[in-house]
């Protein structure tokens, strides 16, 4: 159950990044906003990868 839950969190994070990137590309208000969204996306990707690595290490 715990493993399934962490897998769901991982995919939710990935989906959030995809949605954020698509919306930032569609609505390019200014470069600052675009850079900020890319930075936050990078942070979320790093978090998702670290969660995945921790999960693999526990097996």
Overview of this structure, please?
This protein has 59 residues and is mainly alpha-helical. The protein has one domain (14-58). The chain has helices at 2-26, 31-58. The protein starts with a helix and ends with a helix.
Order of secondary-structure elements: HH
Strand tally: 0
Q: What count of helical segments does DSSP give? A: 2
Main sheet characteristics: none
Rough outline: elongated
How does the helix and strand content classify structurally? mainly alpha
Residue windows where pLDDT falls under 50 for at least 5 positions: none
Q: Roughly how many Å is the radius of gyration?
A: 14 Å
Question: What's the helical proportion of residues?
Answer: over 70%
Distance between the termini: 14 Å
Strand content: under 5%
Number of domains: 1
* Global mean pLDDT: 75
Which properties best describe this structure?
transmembrane helix, transmembrane, mainly alpha, 0% strand, membrane
Layout: helices, strands, pairs:
Elements: H1 2-26, H2 31-58
Helix pairs in contact: 1-2
